[in-house]
Amino acid sequence: MSEDEFTNLFKYVQEQFDGVNRKLDEKASQASIDTLINSMDSFIKRLDDHDANMAARDRQFNRLLEWARKVSAKTGIPLENL
């Protein structure tokens, strides 16, 4: 391979790398990554809040169910499916 061919090949490869780097910069800019992370954080917070609300609701329902069972036992009135 002559020096001219090598130089041309090197320039071609360098141009290809530059093109790939430009495309990567456009696709994965820091601003777009930050936006994605913020969106994911917001979604995860909503899921955590929802889980906490469901746990509180379940606990409240179980306490009410326990109370209904005690009332049923004390009054002698059977409640189905308790």
Account of the protein in words:
By secondary structure, the protein is mainly alpha-helical. 87% of the residues lie in helices and 0% in strands. It contains two helices and no strands. It has a domain at 30-72.
Task: Look at the structure and give the mean pLDDT.
Answer: 90
Q: Please state the overall shape, judged from the principal axes of the Cα atoms.
A: rod-shaped
Helical percentage: over 70%
Q: List the total number of helices.
A: 2
How would you describe the oligomerization state of the chains in this entry?
Answer: single chain
Order of helices and strands: HH
How far is the N terminus from the C terminus? 88 Å
Helical/strand content category: mainly alpha
Which regions have little confidence, pLDDT < 50, spanning 5+ residues? none
Q: Radius of gyration, Cα only, in angstroms?
A: 33 Å
Number of strands: 0
Tell me what portion of residues adopts beta-strand conformation: under 5%
**Biggest sheet architecture:** none
Topology:
Elements: H1 3-27, H2 30-75
Keywords:
82 residues, mainly alpha, 2 helices
Brief sketch in words of this structure:
With 82 residues, this protein is mainly alpha-helical. It has helices at 3-27, 30-75.
